[in-house]
């Protein structure tokens, strides 16, 4: 694992650096494999990155979009990660609908929809059960409690090692999420973190010793490159 940590002056600088790196990794993936697979994060921090990506002239037909997690709400719900990404980026460019791979959330059984999405990933990446695909780029954030994707502290989803997709739990509300091993098989994982409220979580994530079941982002140790991009309010207390 190649571990990189950068503290940027402010959120604008964080977005600019994120755009620079993500574009470079998109170009690299397309050059090497003629396509790029990206799993998006929800939340407010990556939204300006998506808006910036929408201004670029990229070969959209060679880019495939997924989500690292999703709230179990319809895709038209204001809380939907898919809706946010569509409004900020995907619906603003000529993005092929066939290249957008949302997590299904309109059934009545989150576990069944997680299985459906896992089957879709297996078919897309042409892998067998028990194998893990290698996403080119996975974008993540963290919460004030150090959760990432929908991998929340002391929840069953943290223990899943034999699945690509599972059901997360946020205060009794189901979410569908990539599993720890799926994320860790990515070529590039980017954490985008902004705001002073994340200082305590980051301190535990970067500590020499801390319980990963309490601070789940510690579990993310990918086979490829790991990038932590922080704005100054988030990263000012870190000894890096």
Automatic annotation (TrEMBL):
The keyword Lipid metabolism does not apply. SUPFAM superfamilies: NagB/RpiA/CoA transferase-like (SSF100950). It is an enzyme of class 3 (hydrolase). It comes from the Bacteria. Pathway: Carbohydrate degradation; pentose phosphate pathway; D-ribulose 5-phosphate from D-glucose 6-phosphate (oxidative stage): step 2/3. It catalyses: 6-phospho-D-glucono-1,5-lactone + H2O = 6-phospho-D-gluconate + H(+). Its EC number is 3.1.1.31. Gene3D superfamilies: 3.40.50.1360. It holds the Pfam family Glucosamine_iso. One of its GO terms (molecular function) is 6-phosphogluconolactonase activity. Residues 10-228 form the Glucosamine/galactosamine-6-phosphate isomerase domain. Keywords: Hydrolase. Hydrolysis of 6-phosphogluconolactone to 6-phosphogluconate. Belongs to the glucosamine/galactosamine-6-phosphate isomerase family. 6-phosphogluconolactonase subfamily. This is 6-phosphogluconolactonase.
């Amino acid at each position: 694992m190649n571990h990189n940590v950068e503290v940027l002056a402010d959120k604008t600088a964080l977005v600019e650096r994120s755009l620079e790196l993500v574009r470079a990794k998109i170009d690299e993936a397309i050059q090497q494999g003629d396509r790029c697979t990206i799993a998006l994060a929800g939340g407010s921090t990556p939204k300006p990155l998506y808006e910036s990506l929408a201004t670029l002239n990229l070969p959209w037909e060679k880019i495939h979009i997924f989500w690292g997690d999703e709230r179990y709400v319809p895709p038209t719900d204001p809380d939907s990660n898919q809706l946010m990404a569509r409004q900020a980026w995907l619906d603003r460019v000529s993005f092929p609908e066939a290249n957008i791979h949302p997590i299904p959330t309109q059934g009545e059984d989150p576990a069944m929809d997680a299985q459906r999405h896992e089957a879709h990933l297996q078919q897309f990446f042409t892998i067998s059960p028990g194998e893990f695909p290698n996403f080119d780029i996975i974008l993540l954030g963290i919460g004030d409690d150090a959760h990432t994707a929908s991998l929340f502290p002391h929840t069953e989803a943290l223990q899943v090692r034999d699945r690509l997709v599972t059901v997360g739990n946020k205060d009794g509300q189901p979410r569908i999420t990539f599993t720890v091993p799926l994320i860790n098989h990515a070529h590039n994982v980017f954490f985008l973190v902004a705001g002073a409220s994340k200082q305590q979580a980051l301190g535990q994530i970067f500590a020499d010793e801390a319980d990963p079941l309490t601070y789940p982002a510690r579990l993310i140790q990918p086979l490829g490159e790991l990038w932590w991009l922080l704005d100054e309010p988030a990263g000012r207390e870190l000894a890096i």
